[in-house]
Amino acid sequence: MTTPVLDLLHAIEQASPSSLTLVGVLCGAALLLHILQLRFAGKGAAGALSLFKWLLVLAALRVLEVQVLRDTWATFMMVLHGVVIWLAFRAILHDLYAGVWLARIQKRPPNRILLNLLSFAMTLFLVAYGLRSVLGVDVSSLLTSSAILTAVVGFSMQDTIGSLFSGLLIQTEKPFKIGDWIKVGELEGQVTEVTWRYTKLTTFAGNQVLLPNNAVAKERVVNFTEPFPEVSLVVPVPAPLAAPPVRVKSSLEEVLRKAPLVSKNRAPRVRLAEITLDHALYRLVFYVDDYEDVYAARSEVLSAVWYEFHKQGIEFPMARRRLVTGPRKAPQKHGDLTELLSGVGLLEGMREDELELIVQCAAVRTYPPGASIVEQGQGGTTMFLIAEGEVAVARDGRELTRLGQGDLFGEMALLTGEPRQADVTAVTPVRCLELDREAFRGVMDKNPQLVANVTRVFQEREAQMRQAPRPDGEASAQGLFDRFRRIFW
């Protein structure tokens, strides 16, 4: 009487020494690779070592089956082959593809749903093959007989199955990925995980929310991270009607320029959006590099606006009414500033009341020594008149000249929109008058002499360009005059 154990021992006795030696060498090599795999755990080489290990085990089983056991333990060897093939497939899928190719080379998270789907399909194939080869079960008839049961189960679990297929579609179409900030319906959060059944979000409050994938597929999804991570913010700021727009805009632009969380990749903008009975509404349009900083950036900008308005003497409007019974207060005069403006060639021939209007529509700016007033290449639509102090004008890091009281700079940016051609830095404490394009346009419409002054400025600019070569990229005098005509006429 024979037993499987006796048959195994007899097969080993009949096997050739070379076959047994080969099986031992293959198993020893697989054991060595397993030790190296543990040594390099967490590194890219571990995936390749795992695959080679299971290939060596598979080769050892094949030699053992063909050269040693032959027909002995055939069923057991078939099952063992299937297990090792599944382990080798798992090493290719999880260790090499997900762990090395995606995580280390592509630098992106693996698609867990796709990995699980492929693993399930491989398992199903090996089980079906084993049932057919070992037990002789007809898999096709088994599937046919269970069709009714499948329909009943599918109807009772339609929500769960819907979530599974929605999760597969999300992973296939990739409307968002792990780490993106999204808005699903009215819920905002950062995607931390996407599984078969749900999408996990972490909100600003730190709460974790599990959204069924079929609910995500039905809702309107907004991705704040794609196609670019910068997020646009529009912050309304009310200001009093008495404050000139150039003064308010200049203050708000200064706030946006200094705010650390405002993106430097895209230029912020300030727009006068609305004028009501009791206030003027300005809109600050700027970008934040990361959606996670949206609320912090909004708070930072609004706080800086409060302090800047307080420094400039601009009061926030309040919904109030008051009855004035006393005599009307005479408008404040700025004799020193109007006198300086009268000596500027661009404003030659203007009446005192027109100069006073320019002062009232302008913003008075102060700068400490070393402060940057304008930067080379920077856009702008304002010009500056120095009332007190001295500034240095430099281009490409080389100082060209110095300007003092009564001197004007930045006029070409106001007239033509040309980028600033030089850096202007305060040498001493500086007080200057900043005039914007809107105020200049209003004055020019009332005084034709101003048009003749502007024409003379361009003629002088053309004469200067003939005497000295202009820098690369600087427009000609005629080109600048054409820009002026398009803007003001």
From TrEMBL:
Residues covered by the Cyclic nucleotide-binding domain: 346-461
Location relative to the cell: Cell membrane
Keywords for the protein's UniProt record, in alphabetical order: Cell membrane, Membrane, Transmembrane, Transmembrane helix
Gene3D superfamilies documented for this protein: 1.10.287.1260, 2.30.30.60, 3.30.70.100, Jelly Rolls
One annotated Gene Ontology cellular component of this protein: plasma membrane
Superkingdom classification of source: Bacteria
Residue ranges crossing the lipid bilayer per the database entry: 20-38, 45-61, 73-93, 113-135
SMART domains xref list: cNMP (SM00100)
MF-aspect GO terms: mechanosensitive monoatomic ion channel activity
Main localisation: membrane
SUPFAM superfamilies: cAMP-binding domain-like, Mechanosensitive channel protein MscS (YggB), C-terminal domain, Sm-like ribonucleoproteins
Membrane protein topology class: Multi-pass membrane protein
Family: Belongs to the MscS (TC 1.A.23) family.
Protein name (Swiss-Prot/TrEMBL): Miniconductance mechanosensitive channel MscM
Protein source organism: Fundidesulfovibrio magnetotacticus
Gene (UniProt): mscM
